[in-house]
Amino acid sequence: MPQFVVHTIPGSPCARAVLATLVEKSAAFCVSGLTPGMHKREPHLSRHPFGRIPVLEHDAFMLYETQAIVRYLDRILPAPALTPSDAKAAARMDQIMGICDCYLFQGVNSVIGFQRIVGPRLLGLTPDEAAIADAVPKAHAVFAELARLLGDKPYLASHELTLADLMVAPHLDFLAQTPEWAVLTKDRPNLVTWLTRMNARKSLEATSWERVAEMARAA
């Protein structure tokens, strides 16, 4: 039986960060699939009182919030290490993870990704072009800072893969499926190269929306 259970709606970028971390750690896991709306009622509210996803179940231990989950996994599954030993690189990783949660997801992917992908695909909604247009300036600010922090390094926080890469990549991969991607990356080719590098990793290949949906059906 898998050691870890991830409760999520297939397609969630936040859950993909957790699943990709588990793949990087070569850990056995399964996906407990939810459909839209299930995360707002029981039994999921007993796992996550704020009705969000994902939730990690490890034996009798329940944990929510993506940053908390991936940090927990990196502590209990130490190889390969996904947190830099250098204090400055670790701080940069922490900073980028904060950017991911507070700015890349909130107000950018939560708007553009939802309006372009989640709403139409899962809920049959028509994109709200005004909402998308309002989110684009914030998206430019986020992309500019991520491109600056990346620079010419292979990974965001250091020269090795960290939790920051695994958190940011699913969100950028989501946005890469929208018309806004070309505009947001026009003068930031390093982000395109980085995302290509990330998508070539087994952990990202194994956790695409379609693959996670298959896992949920098989559970």
**Poorly predicted runs:** none
CATH fold category name of the largest domain? Glutathione S-transferase Yfyf (Class Pi), Chain A, domain 2
Mean pLDDT, as a whole number?
96
* Neighbour order of strands in the largest sheet: 2-1-3-4
Termini separation: 11 Å
Biggest beta sheet summary: 4 strands, mixed
The H/E string reads EHEHEEHHHHHHHH
Number of helices: 10
Number of domains: 2
CATH class of the largest domain: Mainly Alpha
Shape: globular
Structural class: alpha+beta
Rg, please? 17 Å
Helix content: 55-70%
What fraction of the residues are assigned to beta strands by DSSP? 5-15%
At a glance:
The chain is of the alpha+beta class.
Can you walk through the features of this model?
With 219 residues, the protein is an alpha+beta fold. The protein has ten helices and four strands, in the order βαβαββαααααααα. It has helices spanning 13-24, 44-47, 66-76, 87-123, 129-150, 163-175, 180-185, 189-199, 202-205, 209-218, and strands at residues 4-8, 29-33, 55-58, 61-64. The chain has a four-stranded mixed sheet. A hairpin with a 2-residue loop joins β3 (55-58) and β4 (61-64). α1 runs parallel beside α3 (66-76). The N and C termini lie close together (11 Å).
